[in-house]
Specification:
8 strands, three-stranded antiparallel β-sheet, alpha/beta, 50% helix, five-stranded parallel β-sheet, Rossmann fold
Length: 224
């Protein structure tokens, strides 16, 4: 049977990863969180004490970079040089660095084939910023998932509080806005809705409602 692919793009905190993971579970597809892959590159840059904003320092690190994606009970794990870094890449410092390294063309082209290979091997729900526009332009379903920055900041705050990490709403909102700006205005593969993507705004939807909407969109496009 031919593999299928579902591309979900959108800004940070729109609920992409939770929804994409649950959608993949329902469909029996593999969930690929591409942000985690960029984060792993960023972590390597931080490990090396290099400047994530400086291509001259970042690009040489790509050669021989040892990144692996694995799955444990359907949960994506990231390995850097054999070490499980799935927790480490979620740190605040890594978020900013990931956004910076993701603006470097060589980083993007390095990861392009890596991501396409994953989608050739299995049916995937892949989430990111440029999946429908660049990575999988022939995806069977393309969704652009968004929500108001304030709603995204509230969700992020809740998530951090549940993890017992101190945080405040205003600084989260500021970070979200800065990251949106950076992701939308980079010259290469900026965050934007693919012409053939369906827009889903989750500002006023909870998780279950969003998932229902996603499932019906998928059912319209793929005969399940
Ligand atoms: O989704 P996330 O917050 O984990 O992503 C981390 C950073 O990686 C984000 O600032 C944008 C970048 N990214 C990207 O440029 N392209 C992707 N397909 C996924 C993430």
């Amino acid at each position: 049977m031919k593999v299928k692919s579902i591309a979900i793009d959108g800004p940070a905190g729109a609920g992409k990863s939770t929804l994409a993971r649950r959608l993949a579970e329902k469909l029996g597809y593999i969930y690929v969180d591409t942000g985690a892959i960029y984060r792993t590159v960023a972590l390597k840059v931080l490990w090396e004490k290099a400047d994530p904003a400086d291509p001259a320092q970042v690009v040489p690190l790509l050669e021989g970079l040892e990144i692996h994606v694995g799955y444990e009970d359907g949960v994506q794990k990231m390995y850097l040089e054999g070490e499980d870094v799935s927790g480490a890449i979620r740190r605040h410092k890594v978020s900013g660095a990931a956004s910076q390294v993701s603006a470097i063309p060589e980083v993007r082209s390095f990861l392009l084939e890596f991501q396409r290979k994953l989608a050739r091997e299995s049916s995937v729900v892949m989430d990111g910023r440029d999946i429908g526009t660049v990575v999988l332009p022939n995806a069977d379903v393309k969704i652009f998932l968004t929500a108001a920055p304030e709603a995204r900041a509230r969700r992020r705050l809740l998530e951090l509080e549940q993890r017992g990490e101190p945080a405040d709403y205003e600084s989260i909102l500021r970070d979200i806005r800065a990251r949106d700006y950076q992701d939308e205005h980079r010259p290469i593969a900026p965050l934007k809705q693919a012409a053939d993507a369906v827009l889903l705004d989750t500002t006023r939807l909870n998780l279950d409602q969003s998932l229902d909407r996603l499932l019906s969109l998928v059912k319209e496009k793929i005969a399940l």
